[in-house]
Amino acid sequence: MFFLFLGALILQRLAELVIARRNETFLFSKGAFEAGQEHYKWMVAIHASFFVSLLLEVPLFHKEPASWWWIPFSLFLLAQMARVWCLRSLGAFWNTKIIILPGAQVVASGPYKYIRHPNYCIVTMEIITIPLVFQAYFTALLFLVLNAVILSVRIPAEEKALQEATDYGQRFDGKHRFLPGDET
After folding, report:
1. Cβ 97 vs Cβ 28: under 8 Å
2. Which residues contact 143 (CB under 8 A, 6 or more apart)?
3. Closest to 51 in 3D by CA, of 95, 96, 94, 12
4. What does the pLDDT read at residue 113?
5. DSSP character for 178?
6. Fewer beta carbons below 10 Å: N end or C end of the chain?
7. CA neighbor of 131 nearest in space, from 121, 150, 144
8. In angstroms, what CA-CA distances link 145 with 17, 71, 96?
9. What is the pLDDT of residue 54?
10. Any idea of the CA torsion for 83, 123, 119, 173, to the nearest 10 degrees?
């Protein structure tokens, strides 16, 4: 079950990279630029290492699904539905990189109406729930910390780029939405 689940997850990530590349090409053709290149390699390394850690921890320590596996798995499935909602809401603007189209109107529909960075919440949920299904507690804890560290760099870089090149500041000025940033 573990290898099948992990294989499906890796295929999903590869499909997302294809979508991201297509969107990146489209946005660059419209005059977009990339921000946050300095940290992107570290983000990729963390996400790839997450799979490696799971591949090591679960078989090496003979981890089995927890008797309560259905709880984290249900949360994982909810996160997948939210991921699709994010992808559909952002359309061509969805990417794994920070790709900014100057002058663009920031998407404020779907989950983005309620939260600034829902996809990062979804990834965090996955980093917690996937290992918990298989009782891979080391992987869950380690990558929860590493994810928090990379997001502490990523989110400010993304918000700065959006603030400088789009209507982000005007659209959300004074509106209280969950996480992060300064709000009045």
Report:
1. no
2. 46, 49, 50, 53, 127, 131
3. 12
4. 86
5. B
6. C
7. 144
8. 24, 22, 20
9. 97
10. 150
pLDDT for the residue 36: 93
Q: Are 87 and 94 in contact (CB under 8 A)?
A: yes
Residue 184 lies in a domain: no
Angstrom distance (rounded) from CA 148 to CA 43: 11
Q: How large is the average pLDDT for residues 77-96?
A: 97
**pLDDT for the residue numbered 175:** 58
Please indicate, yes or no, if residue 180 is contained in any of the structural domains: no
In a domain, 69, yes or no: yes
Total number of domains in the chain: 1
Q: Which domain holds residue 78?
A: 2-172
> Does residue 184 have a pLDDT over 50?
no
- The Cα–Cα gap between 94 and 10 comes to 19
